[in-house]
Amino acid sequence: MRNDIRYGIFLRPDPATCWAVTQTTLALKQQYGFVAAAAFAPHATLIGNFQSSVSEAELITTLDRVFAGVRPYPVYNSGIERAPRGNYWYDVNLDAAGAEPNQPLNEIAARVKSALLPLHVPHNDRFAPNVADYTFAGHIGLASFELIVDPRLSVEVGGYLAELPISAPSSFEARWYSLFQFRADWQGPWWENMPWRHVKSWRAEEVSAGSGDAPRATA
């Protein structure tokens, strides 16, 4: 079926990182005509291309439960990395030492996957795994599906990215999670024509010292 609805559940970086991503993807669009990474709001995907078997309201209720009790934690940006398929991203999956996966980030991704797996309708979307097949590795896309489809510019784009006078913070606090809705022809180059809308955000809250309040997330 064409133009089906899909959902993405994302970690929203801090505004400075978002601004660095926005400038970088615009530079790539102007120089190479790339639109895939710029087709999304800056984000790290927790679950993407989720086809839901329940209503949007029920999906929100499920995610309310997932994000309730989530506290802020640091996310570390290891810099621009060339992915195995020739595309580029900020690697945000590792701990401060750059040695092991960031435990809190990977735990929240696992919670989202566990909650959504029973609600997922399997699909055959191009370059988009089903929930059961998705293995989380935290990253923020910069140059995406164009290089996966045609990697001939990968080396050139890597050099271009290295010389851009744009830098992102080396770390940020994970505080915001968002649900987005997307529509596209998922069998074709869907990133070229993919209207989307923001559905809801959740903000992780610190627990006040000595308050005894449970941690919470708010829209």
UniProtKB/TrEMBL annotation:
SUPFAM superfamilies membership: LigT-like
InterPro entries: Cyclic_Pdiesterase
Lineage, top ranks: Bacteria, Bacillati, Actinomycetota, Actinomycetes, Micrococcales
Name of the protein in its database record: 2'-5' RNA ligase family protein
